[in-house]
Design a protein that fits this description.
Radius of gyration: 22 Å
Bound molecules: flavin-adenine dinucleotide
Shape: elongated
Distance between the termini: 18 Å
Strand content: 25-35%
Order of helices and strands: HEEEHEEEEEEEHEHEHEEEEEEEH
């Protein structure tokens, strides 16, 4: 949306195709590091940015881009399941998506007890027993949040070396209804209509057992799913898109911004800054292509 704001202000006809407005911000709870707001709910911030984006005349479509091709003229064809769009430039801002656990039952029970977003689905598990899988800040955040909603929270980690802020780890350790199960992996998720139990294996003592639970929150990291532009861009070992200081990828006219890029750090303000660069880069690219001098006012 930030790229959209900048692009329309340079009078480029702009279409955003996205699966859900707000991206990962939907999964955050309160945002406390977005300058200008000491604390703001992620939904409020998303809505403010969306209204601003629409007010500049950006068109927004809720859809998934399945394929991107470059034409002989150097334009791009973007295919969704139902439509095809042609664009002179494209900014890829596909972000990150949750890493799957890849165990039996995960796919089948997705949305029926299996969730990748405690902030979105947590309230459905009031007074129930849930498991949170993972050991980073997101997993501990989810466990902390769920301990205020669910009756019991199992925090399951495959080794026990939690990679999270100390303050968060202390808070989780001190919650009476959180039970931390280290050296433990989930082997199976099962139930009838909804999740009813998981099979867990403790690798330290070599024991497998069943845990009756109503929900499983999977928080084992996020990955870049960039295969649809694999032929057009250079990627690093994490499949993140490599860009230069103007947001350009290996293909002229194709830019990238935000968490999907090889930038080491993943934050809203960084994604927005990169989106600004990419939009201005796209404008410069089009101006130069038309043989016009690139004059940009720096404000
Ligand atoms: C739980 C959580 C809490 C966080 N808290 C904070 C915080 O407090 N402060 C902070 O600064 N950052 C926070 N972050 C990080 C922040 O959310 C991200 O850095 C930021 O959202 C990145 O923005 P992005 O636009 O690059 O990608 P994303 O937010 O990932 O958005 C990518 C969008 O592209 C869509 N998409 C992907 N592929 C396709 C496709 N093929 N077709 C169409 N659409 C597609 C996705 O569905 C999504 O809507 C948090 C992240 C999480 C998960």
């Amino acid at each position: 949306m930030t790229a959209g704001i900048y692009a329309t202000r340079r009078e480029m006809k702009t279409l955003i195709i996205g699966q859900e407005v707000g991206g990962q911000m939907v999964w955050a709870n309160e945002i406390e590091n977005y300058p200008g707001f000491a604390k703001i709910s992620s939904f409020e911030l998303i809505d403010k940015i969306k209204q601003q984006t629409l007010s500049f005349g950006v068109e927004m479509k809720s859809d998934e881009v399945k394929k991107i091709e470059r034409t002989a003229e150097g334009n791009f064809l973007l295919y969704t399941a139902r439509e095809t769009f042609e664009a002179k430039t494209v900014i890829i801002a596909m972000g990150l998506s949750p890493r799957r656990l890849a165990v039996p039952g995960e796919k089948e029970f997705n949305g029926r007890g299996v969730s990748y977003c405690a902030n979105c689905d947590g309230p459905f598990f009031r007074d129930k027993a849930v498991a949170v899988i993972g050991g980073g800040n997101s997993a501990l955040d989810a466990a902390e949040m769920m301990s205020k909603i669910a009756s019991k929270v199992y925090l399951i980690h495959h080794n026990g070396n939690f990679k999270a802020f100390d303050i968060l780890l202390d808070e989780v350790k001190n919650r009476p209804n959180i039970e931390m199960l280290s050296h433990t992996e989930v082997r199976d998720i099962s139930g009838a209509a909804k999740v009813e139990k998981i099979k867990i294996f403790n690798s330290e003592i070599g024991v497998e057992r069943e845990l009756p639970i109503d929900g499983v929150f999977i928080e084992v990291g996020r990955i870049a799913s960039t295969d649809l532009v694999a032929d057009l861009v250079k990627r690093n070992e994490k499949q993140q898109i490599i860009i230069n200081s103007k947001g350009e990828t290996d293909t002229p006219g194709l830019f990238a911004a935000g968490d999907v890029t090889d930038c080491e750090f993943k934050q809203i303000t960084i994604a927005m800054g990169q989106a600004t660069i990419a939009a201005l880069g796209a404008y410069q690219y089009l101006q130069l292509k038309k043989g016009r001098p690139f004059v940009i006012k720096n404000y």
